[in-house]
UniProtKB/TrEMBL annotation:
Keywords: Methyltransferase, Transferase. Its EC number is 2.1.1.-. It comes from Saccharopolyspora rosea. One of its GO terms (molecular function) is methyltransferase activity. This is Class I SAM-dependent methyltransferase. Coiled coil: none annotated. Residues 63-123 form the DOT1 domain. InterPro entries: DOT1_dom, SAM-dependent_MTases_sf. SUPFAM superfamilies: S-adenosyl-L-methionine-dependent methyltransferases. It is an enzyme of class 2 (transferase). GO terms for biological process: methylation.
Amino acid sequence: MAIHIATLAKAPYLWIRRAVADTLFERRYDVRTSPVIELDELGIPAHERIRYQATGWLNLPRILPAREVGPHDVFVDFGSGMGRVVLQAATRYPCKKVIGVELSGRLVGIARANVARNAHRLRCAEVSFVESDALDYEIPDDMTIAFFHNPFTGSIFARVLQRIVESVDRAPRTVRVVYVNPVEERALLETGRARVVRRLRGMRPTAEWSRSNSTRMYEITPRAIGHGVAG
């Protein structure tokens, strides 16, 4: 009975919580990032891809404090949507570059406008959006932070992950992966190259609800200095 009540309460609770947070964020930055948009509205096939939904505005600063990011870091948001995370990263961190990778040209246009309205706030000098399928995107060999808000699953995630690992081996460095709603965590850990370094747990009544509201950070390291798998 308790689980049933919790399930019934989930939708209004999430709606109210997100609405308040989104209003505060969007008023501060004068942006539009919050609508949930289904893939059919964007003309994108749904197989292994997830609808657009903005990341909670506290996820990134909580999992990745500003003191842990420097001018050598290159931040890439896979599935950047309307640019909320790109904007947060570019205004919070003194990165070398912040890049958003997004398949929908419609969302890329909105994201660019959102960042342009906040040009005076940016701490990162180079902010860009790439309109591309993640499967076609060439992983930069200087990328040090990869961000995913569960934009895709299955074979798409596996292929993007493989390319990240290949890039790490080609240009040895540590890449931090920030993953919101980490449904493909098993694929990450089974590479033998990733380990969990930080967890933010979703405090929710059910396990599925808790996972969908969790954020985790992993490190992927070169083969020669790999740490193996962390439980």
